[in-house]
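Title: Prediction job returns without error message
Component: structure pipeline
Severity: low
Priority: P3
Assignee: unassigned

Description:
Job completed but the reporter wants confirmation the result is attached to the right record. Sequence as submitted:
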Amino acid sequence: ESIVTGIWVSDKDDTVVFFNRGMGAIAGIPPQSAIGVHLWQGFSEETVGELRQHYATAKESLKPTPYESVRVVTPAGRFTYQSGWLIPLAEDDRFNGMICTVEDVTARKQAEDRLRESERRFRLLVEHLPQRVFLKDRLSRYINCNRRYARDLGIEPEAITGKTDHEFYPRQLAEKYRADDQRVIGSGTPV
């Protein structure tokens, strides 16, 4: 009961027979209120549709089935993303219940979404700058560039990743660029 991860267990008829405190905290309900209730009772298909699909897969295959960042509206009405495992219980190769672990990954999912949006806006900005823009790692390998820079090299922007100036410029010029890169890296000041 001191585990923070949510855990619920259902029987062969999909009735909840165990619901720990961690699950109560995630669901926003007292654990005892879930005991004896059919697993999907009170949930709309929109609320648990994806989780129900994973459940059906685990139930049919009798194999542990992971689920990642599944959208669930809790019984308390809170919008969440949940990850965990559905672990079927079997008796004589027949379904006899399910153990489910649940982790509320809402904060992580929202942070990932914000990061993706920030990256999208940054990429949009870089693509519309009149300058040629590129980014390299500490070994002077390209990480990415904008279309304007890629066009000058005669490539698509995605093709630059992992390459060095030696693949695009004469040796002497490539070595000068590498020396410039190392000087900038050594100074700690971006250009």
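Comment from assignee: result matches the submitted record. Residues 106-128 form the longest helix (23 residues).
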